[in-house]
Design brief:
This protein has three helices and two strands; from the N terminus they run αββαα. With 88 residues, the chain is an alpha+beta fold. The chain has a domain of 61 residues. The protein has a two-stranded antiparallel sheet with strand order 1-2. The model has no long low-confidence stretch (mean pLDDT 87).
Amino acid sequence: MMSNWQQEAQRMVEQGKQTTAGTISGGEMLIDADPEQGFLRVKLRNIQPTEAMPQITTAFCLVLANGGAMFHLQVKQHIRQHEEAKNE
């Protein structure tokens, strides 16, 4: 039997799937973590369509920032802007 926390997480995943339906048609997420050191690195690749990569990456930053806030963490982030994006 799932705990309330697991049920709520599953509900949020299903809601997220409905919200993002049609945004991308596939890709991969690689997660490299060292829990003892508090290290987490995520790499997205083969995102289809490729032009969705900036949106998806930015969305994951938002999800991580909100997750950190849920754990009462002070969140600091830097999102690199490329010259093409700055000119739009």
